[in-house]
Write a structure and sequence with these properties.
Helix content is 17%, strand content 31%. The chain is built from six helices and 36 strands. The N and C termini lie far apart (122 Å). Belongs to the WD repeat TUP1 family.
């Protein structure tokens, strides 16, 4: 026993507390090591972020210096041009050659072929999933203006977005990949682009460095385009008329007036508001108007209301009593009180598909104001009872998106235009299709219908299409009457004058045209030709919407150049240019009863303005 006891005493054992202490010490050492490593990583991260911030500041400083250099360069260039022009005028006064009418350097620049607007030869690119000739009208999400960057759709015609896989127009995808035509906008409609698809600095915008060269007369700014050789006849007013189609086609091409009727007002778009005399401009907090110095000032324009939306505003339309304004955007149609600017109601179809976008591209009140008709990209036309906020009818039949709507003057019929190359007439009460006006004479280009209008007497229907044509039909017989050919690019808007004697059109060739309807006018009898009275040149980009004032004294146009212009149809001169949107002006409308007009834009806003005879209270 004593041996066993002695044996246990001979085996040393470490106390338990000592072992725990060693383990804790090891853990503490490892923790300190990890903590030191984390601290080093934080220092490295802070140093890295500081270095990046410093580089960003340096880049911003370089950009600012570049902007200032460009602005200084522009000012020096402008002074140089003015001095040269002064010297040339002085030389002219002493018997030398006459001085040019504009800046010397711009006058001496050789005419260059501008980049095409979109696809090959400047034509809209074909749909990604459809063969040539089956495309749909372009959409303002890309061409017309920006959508919020969160949207993943492509642009559709009246400012609306198109679902992925649908055609792109003007070489633009929307949003996020747009490097579009001159004066365009980048992703989300926020970054202006020049003619080469490069971003334009704010200083370049303000100084006008990005301004496009004025297109040559009667062209779309894309360089010379060969025209097919056709027999010609002498039309009225010295114009030339393209030979008529065969009798079986029934419709006729119309005459084009000579170049002397082309009126250019592009100087307004070229003017810098900072240098315009006070008597030739009107300014607000975020808008301005420049008046034509060559014309007596006849208007005063004021901003009345700004109506904010959550998406592109595709269309605007007043009620016939002028009390309400309807706007179309993504999934909803909104009705606003014109006097107060308050939103009266929001119309949305609860039965519509919930996934994806559903842009309302056309709206129109019935003459009595009881109904509001909407056209959307789901190919459906909805007739809303305004008081009940309920759908009366859903009109189905079109094969592609609805782009334009109009009511007959008596309020019994609804006119619709679609990308499916048809114009259809519907009965309001029954919701049944009455006529289908089909474009049978379609050539090699897509003839999707972009705009439709009833004549004031309700006897004629006009339709604009992507194939550069405007077509007229007889409402009573549904027979085609005329095919009006004169624009150099797709026609996006048509409107009859209040007296029914003229037809107004706006095109992607950046021009407006006034067409004399002759005996097609008030009495509606057939006529051999429709003549182009004048071509209005002044916008710097696509003309997307046109309208007449109720008294016929003014023409109003909205453009992708973000501007709205007022024109005098009697002189074919522009009165003024309004800049009040940050993106394309997709839609314009004038109140039938008051001196108000409305604009809808890709900047997700609609605005109400007033126009009054000048001088008005300032």
């Amino acid at each position: 026993m004593s041996n066993i006891y002695n044996h246990r005493q001979m085996v040393p054992s470490a106390p338990l507390s000592s072992r725990v202490t060693e383990l804790l010490e090891a853990l503490r050492t490892e923790y300190d090591s990890l903590n030191q490593e984390a601290s080093n990583m934080r220092l490295f991260k802070d140093e890295y972020e500081q270095r990046i911030s410093s580089q960003i500041n340096e880049i911003q400083l370089v950009q600012q210096n570049l902007f200032e250099l460009e602005r200084a360069h522009h000012k020096i260039k402008q002074q140089y041009e003015e001095e040269i022009l002064r010297l040339r005028r002085e030389l002219e006064a002493r018997g030398g050659p006459p001085a040019p009418s504009g800046p010397f350097l711009q006058q001496q620049q050789p005419q260059q072929q501008q980049p095409p607007l979109g696809g090959p030869q400047g034509q809209p690119p074909m749909p990604m999933n459809q063969p040539h000739g089956s495309g749909m009208p372009p959409g303002p999400g890309g061409m017309y203006g920006g959508m919020p960057p969160s949207s993943g759709a492509h642009g559709g015609p009246n400012g609306a977005a198109m679902a992925p896989g649908q055609p792109l127009i003007g070489g633009e995808s929307h949003p996020g990949a747009y490097m579009g035509p001159p004066g365009g906008y980048g992703p989300g409609g926020s970054v202006p682009m020049n003619a080469h698809g490069q971003p334009v600095t704010p200083q370049q915008q303000a100084s006008g460095i990005n301004k496009e060269r004025k297109p040559s007369v009667m062209t779309s700014g894309q360089g010379p385009q060969p025209q097919p050789q056709q027999p010609q006849q002498q039309g009225q007013g010295g114009g030339q008329m393209v030979s008529r189609q065969t009798p079986t086609q029934q419709s006729r091409n119309v005459s084009i007036m000579p170049n002397k009727n082309v009126v250019s007002s592009s100087q307004l778009a070229d003017m810098d508001p900072d240098t315009v005399p006070a008597n030739l401009k009107r300014e607000g907090t975020d808008w301005f108007v420049i008046f034509n110095p060559k014309m007596p000032r006849s208007l005063n324009i004021e901003h009345v209301h700004t109506l904010d939306h959550t998406s592109v505003v595709c269309c605007v339309k007043f009620s016939n009593d002028g009390k309400y304004l309807a706007t179309g955007c993504n999934r909803t149609t909104q009705i606003w009180n014109v006097a107060t600017g308050n939103k009266e109601c929001v119309l949305a179809d609860e039965n519509a598909p919930k996934n994806g976008d559903l842009y309302i591209r056309a709206v129109c009140f019935s003459p009595d104001g009881k109904y509001l008709v909407t056209g959307a990209e789901d190919k459906q036309i909805r007739i809303w009872d305004v008081q009940k906020r309920m759908i009366k009818h859903v009109l189905s039949g079109h094969d592609q998106d609805i782009y334009s709507l109009d009511f007959s003057p008596d309020g019994n019929m609804i006119l619709s235009g679609s990308g499916d190359r048809t114009v259809r007439l519907w009965n309001l009460e029954s919701g049944k299709e009455v006529y289908k006006f089909t474009i049978d004479d379609m050539g090699p280009k897509d003839a999707g219908v972009t705009s439709v209008a009833f004549s004031p007497n309700g006897k004629l229907v006009a339709a604009a299409s992507l194939d550069k044509m405007i077509r007229l039909w007889d409402v009573s017989t549904a027979n085609p009457l005329q095919r009006i050919d004169g624009h150099k690019d797709s026609v996006y808007a048509v409107a009859f004058s209040p007296d029914g004697q003229s037809l107004l059109s706006g095109s992607l060739d950046k021009t407006l045209r006034i067409w004399d309807l002759g005996r097609y006018g008030p009495n509606g009898r057939p006529s051999e030709i429709v003549t182009c009275r004048s071509t209005l040149v002044g916008h710097k980009d696509f003309v997307l919407s046109v309208a007449y004032s109720p008294d016929g004294n003014w023409i109003v146009s909205g453009s992708k150049d973000r501007g709205v212009q007022f024109w005098d149809p009697r002189t074919s001169q522009t009165q003024c240019m309004l800049q009040g949107h940050k993106n394309s002006v997709i839609s314009v409308a004038l109140s039938p009863t008051q001196t108000f007009f409305a604009t809808g834009s890709g900047d997700c806003r609609a605005r109400i303005w007033s126009y009054e005879n000048y001088p008005a209270p300032m």
